[in-house]
Amino acid sequence: MDQVKQVQQALREFAEPEKAAFLPTFFQALPGGYGEGDQFLGIRVPNIRKVAKAYLLPLEQLTDLICSVFHEERFFALVVMCQHYQKAKSDDEQQAVFAFYQRYIKNVNNWDLVDCSAPKIVGPFIWHHQDWELLEQFASSTSMWQQRIAMVSCFYYIRQNDVDITIALAKRFHSHTHPLMHKAVGWMLRELAKRDKPAVEFFLQQHLSVLPRELLRYSIEHFDEPLRQSYLSGSILES
Predict the structure, then answer these.
(1) pLDDT of 17 over the 60 cut
(2) pTM
(3) Residue 186 CB coordination number (10 Å)
(4) How far apart are CA 171 and CA 154, in angstroms?
């Protein structure tokens, strides 16, 4: 049995029928949802990661998995890509992982697939190469998933104490039409606030009257309760 089939068998050993029935609703894979048409085996994320740790397949063996109709197999492939990127010992090896990721980016097509990979592959690649044109390609894409990749990759820049990129993308996407982008912007602002709360507060005060409620709630989740309530009520602008 080849390794890809071994992985598929190992994943299916963790499949839960009840979870497989629930996940299409959770990931909006039903008709009209943002994940329409996706299929699920019903495997919990820790178990996917467990299999990924046991089977560090080379990139060339990940093609069938990243192209799979099953969400969990694509998740597995992305986790392995992240492992390869983190273990890479040269720029060439990192380039190879990123090129593979880009080649199959259309299959990074739900929020968890973006979130598990963008901060670990896209963020560090763009940062270390200072390739801001590449970030712009993601941000200006017509694909919401690529826009989310741009936003969530900020997790890496924040860890490098970069404030400007996150704020710039927050300004760009805070008026996005989709709630998933509101959550992504709010999440990154929340992370940025752990390092530079004044920068986040300045952004919030500038845009408070037009910020989507969910974005605001995510952004201020860890603020002290009186300050959080001031933002939620809008009274922060009156103080």
Answers:
(1) yes
(2) 0.95
(3) 23
(4) 13
